[in-house]
């Protein structure tokens, strides 16, 4: 990883809008802020490859507020924080209720006294998750303005019902590495398609995050899914507008084959119909276990009508030797399930690339935090490089 | 926060009795030791406000031994430890049994090999919690004396059945800030009253800690509760004696109105009758779920006879424009429950002050630990100020 | 603890085979590597006794992958990591299934991006645990070779079905301290015997680890157990071969008295018959709760036939004033159970020594990690000593 190239890119960008601000939705950030995240991520990776310390905190606390269970995301967040010198403290109040009002305000202030960063993950409650994070963000501003907090903790969304910015940014980072730079994404075709899965209830935020972000950089993004699996309108509108502004395109089709045809990048992943996710939110709030079981049955039956939506070697053969992306874990036919999102042979062939894709996650998160906490990132990065403080006394 | 003022106060105090010693009950500490905790807490806050590192550990381990569930206390402890450079490791052996004898000795020695500080929280077992901590403390002394431990880990009580010293010290810190210094507490009236709550089993240690501590500094403390909600005799005796020694007073009444009348500080919080808590300890030990459910029913019914014990705007209007304290979370009428400890309007008006009150907790804990681990705190604090090592490379 | 003596010992040893390698089975390591672990452990202890920092990581991550529940082992690992400057992140995916294939590879790569050390504990699944660790190790090598990981995380086994190397090395360390040096173990008799316990399912890895390791250093090791409680063949073969090579001996008997007679060191601990543990693995995989309950009944009945296999004062009187070892917790007759592995009087008399034995565990683990991560350990240790960086600003 070329440190100087990353710093040159960073020098030309204004990411000051991210300083002291929360990263909740990728479409709330300017293009320069997003490019700055990519540059800082690459610089941090370069430092780490040279065994240089990347700490900007002598002591500090990151809080993980997880309202559902995710070992992988928890791990990426902890890795990113450790890299910067932050200790991580979990503040998991359980996901049994949808919190609002006084409870959110109290939680926000309570954990903020000593927190530098707060990572929130909540992808279970369609219609409520992003709202929770936005409310949380607002209470932080109010408490800081009222002089109740010495420092303003910054939020990073580790997945909401609307967007999954750390995943999308990690995927973008991956594409810049595999395609030789951000400019090389322009004009390339990316297929974001639904895929069959024997489990239900997977969040919409992955495809939503993908289409909303990749259209910012001139890609020809094709979203494909069976009828009834529409994404939320807001990210679709973002994608359409972003495509227009960037000179790319955004198309929606109900044909997986059409999406894959000639694609340069493909991502085929299952998600639940959002109407069903909204229903699930209500059932969770009312604690209706019978209703939840019935919903699950209906969704699995609905999924089963589209078992042919799977990534096969034949489908891959119609692409332009496409990169295969997946946020993992994938439902691999014959390996982790009888029938799934992808054939074993396809997964095997792209395994190393999939692991490279995943390895970007901690750097994407660390870069977001770096830009939130450091006013002059280029100078700080140079100091870390020149200080040559070893991370590990080998 | 004025660093030099805090250091001037500290210079006049002898807190050597806290060095290498455990902080289990506030009334086991001298007045100078308590004043030293306040001074160090203020100094640490000042350093942090100036973005100076407050680390006294290059590496070190704090252990949290929680025998019940408390996210907030866990968080305060972790924040305090992080500030000083300690990593926190949980050692939660579950609360299913009341441990004694060999088990306590073994646990104490096992977690002490590498531990610098141990935070114990156990407020569930009336008649057993403080005893557990005292036993634990004794085994630590024996193991250290027998040469089995290189360093003597120090204990901090994060709440027992008898006292809640970190909460009480944080409240005291808060009052010194709001009233402009410890001397201004003298002669002020503080009402510590019971309040109605729709949940049962809240610990007595909050009111006990409050009355035992505030009477040390010349306050006129009035404890109010319905018949049958008496506190334990020991902290009441401490309060009575301390009031006499400090020139304050300690009165017990069964009238919430009389307590609030003309008060400068009020705290209205629910707690369970201690006879019931003793009964609950036995039922827990025998694992009698039916008995526990029956006990709960009886206590809720008993509480319900005193629904009028709630903090209203009318009651607040009878005070001397009192500061409203609450350890949080509060049961807020119409917000978190139908009927609770306080009216929403009162809570709203005092919300910012309540958050300021809560924000003292990590500093109170950090100050206790600082005095336990550092022989010459004033010198060390000056070094931290003059070394000007940034906590965070902004 | 004599630092210079430890460094002198280290200077004569070649531990380079441990650098960048995994520590899964003690018999995969050369004698010099094992001696190096002892020397580094003593050096680290010496530094810590002098309040010197022992950090070799400015930032870094250790991952604990526990597939069963063990508070003590989790604690030892966290203590060791903290000593070296590593933060610990748990990656506990639950023990409900035996993972294999794609799942293991994915887990291995996912948690390795930022991990420096991975501690794996899995002693539940006879026939599967060590295999899981070996598979994990292989995937790490492949991922590193494929350029997917910047650094090669090293594994430490925190107990498998086959060996418990950190326990065995801690016990060896303890014996060198109690007997005045490794050479003084030569020709001494060590009895590793089965003992009655009212609980079932204790792992075989403790006795297996003990006999496989102590025979490396010329001890006369006697393994005793009732019929039907044989250890696995592999560690027994290792013990027999090692005894021959080192000039010691390895005998198996069904008489606890014969084993104790004239012994210099004794360890009497319960374990389950391995056929039963294999059966349990299958029952777990199939989720057969009824079968597991039935297995438990049968094993408890089988144990009960050998209630006389317990450590009594009479038995201890037949030894050569033997050191009494136990990995703890012990089942103490009349204290933690009605009838157990050891009489209370014996345990009491040896309690301090047992705690000294246990206190070696974090140092044994830290020493293994030190040798895995540092190419020139002697130089690095001298730097830590000479740098005189205080661990704690007292």
| Model regions low in confidence, pLDDT < 50 over at least 5 residues of chain A | none
Calculate Rg of chain A over CA atoms: 21 Å
Q: What would CATH call the homologous superfamily of the largest domain in chain A?
A: Aspartate/ornithine carbamoyltransferase
Rounded mean pLDDT of chain A is 92
Briefly note the structural class of the backbone of chain A. alpha/beta
* Counted beta strands of chain A: 11
**Backbone shape of chain A:** globular
Oligomer: homotrimer
Topology order of chain A in helix (H) and strand (E) letters: HHEHEHEHEHEHEHEHEHHHEEEHHH
> Which pair of chains has the greatest number of interface residues, and how are they split between the two chains?
A-C, 34 and 33 residues
Total count of domains of chain A = 2
Largest sheet of chain A: 5 strands, parallel
Q: Tell me the fraction of residues in β-strands of chain A, as a range.
A: 5-15%
Contiguous helical run count of chain A? 15
Q: Give the neighbour order of strands across the main sheet of chain A.
A: 7-6-5-8-9
Distance between the termini of chain A: 21 Å
CATH architecture of the largest domain in chain A: 3-Layer(aba) Sandwich
CATH topology of the largest domain in chain A: Rossmann fold
